[in-house]
Amino acid sequence: MTIDKSALGFGTGERAIYATDPWTTRGRLFAEGGSPTRSDFQRDRDRIVHTTAFRRLKHKTQVFIGPDGDHYRTRLTHTIEVAQIARALARALKLDEDLAEGVALVHDFGHTPFGHTGEDALHEVLAPYGGFDHNAQSLRIVTKLERRYAEFDGLNLTWETLEGLVKHNGPLMTEAGEGTRGPVPQPILDYCELHDLELASYAGLEAQVAAIADDIAYNTHDIDDGLRSGYLSFDMLEEVPFLAGLMKEVRDRYPHLEPDRFTHEIMRRQITRMVEDVIGVAQARLAELRPCSAADVRGAARTIATFSDEMAETDRQIKKLLFSRIYRHPDIMRIRAGAAQIVTDLFHAYMADPALMKSHYWVNHMAGLNEPARARHVGDYLAGMTDTYAVRTHTELFDRTPDLR
């Protein structure tokens, strides 16, 4: 994909006309005075970093649950990598870097312990009560569950940051009000009654670069962690022509490189090629659309910051490799089954006896609630757990806890 280097924003400090302007934000649900030293998007990012939810990401795993080593990614390290890539893309496209970084930093707040396994288990037990969606849970955390400020629940983030959080993967509904990926989760609909996030439109470009940065980051680091764990080998990477080409490039230049350095050289090239591909596609689509404002980006009929067709095919091939070699490996599936049991057991235990939840807030707020409301509170409590806390709590409540190693 060809890149127009003259149009890049590196070092200029210039913001494009189609970028989201921090000085004309649509505001917050609860009005606040401005800051003389920070834009509203800078304040959003800073509030996100100082949350309990952000700190908990340190002990929430991605793919490798209860790893034996300290070098595998957690939700926190993944989030930092996504934020770095999102900020680089935002700078290249002359967007608001603080907004892009903020959306990247908050995008995984709603994830449960034990990665997607925990989410699947929680969705199953909450199915009679509306199910569980990590994106909707992220919104609940930043608008309701974080209790830090005297005048409001949540973080009172700007409309633009919340829009990016909810819609970074595209519109959630059609103009006719139908869900684009199934029913829109109720927590999102409930919030939009108070603060309309315009679910039928695309998000601004800052949110779009955060979304594609997520894809780039986890594709790369799951390969890195897979090689480190032994579930992947360099021979397996040959199944993907793009990765095979990168390995040949590194071998030709460094024929005697040790494995760790060889892996890093592959990964850095993978990130670079994918980032450059997105920049080229975005530049081409912006040239076609000629947006004069962020509103024009939201009103476009397609995503602007995305992969080319060729790179999208590479993305599919990499995901296929990861699913077959790692995500569905018998060892991983055994551990996933144990993690799902932990989440399921804890849910039923807390529904039967809310006093088992070691928090006066949660226990006190359960009194007098109907069953669906109690289930949602239990779901909130479980989703906030780290892996280590969930395992420790299960050990305290049950005679046998699954071995996650």
UniProtKB/TrEMBL annotation:
* A Gene Ontology molecular function term of the record: dGTPase activity
Q: What PROSITE patterns does the record point to?
A: HD
Keyword Transmembrane attached: no
Question: Is Mitochondrion a UniProt keyword of this protein?
Answer: no
Any GO BP: dGTP catabolic process
Q: Which Gene3D superfamilies match?
A: Hypothetical protein af1432
Could you tell me which residue ranges the HD domain spans? 75-219
Arranged from A to Z, the UniProt key words for this protein are: Hydrolase
What InterPro entries does the entry give? dGTPase (IPR006261), dGTPase-like (IPR050135), dNTPase_2 (IPR023023), HD/PDEase_dom (IPR003607), HD_domain (IPR006674), PHydrolase_assoc_dom (IPR026875)
Record-linked CDD domains:
HDc
Family that this chain belongs to: Belongs to the dGTPase family. Type 2 subfamily.
What is this protein identified as?
Deoxyguanosinetriphosphate triphosphohydrolase-like protein
Tell me which species this is from: Ciceribacter selenitireducens ATCC BAA-1503
Q: What is the lineage of its organism?
A: Bacteria, Pseudomonadati, Pseudomonadota, Alphaproteobacteria, Hyphomicrobiales
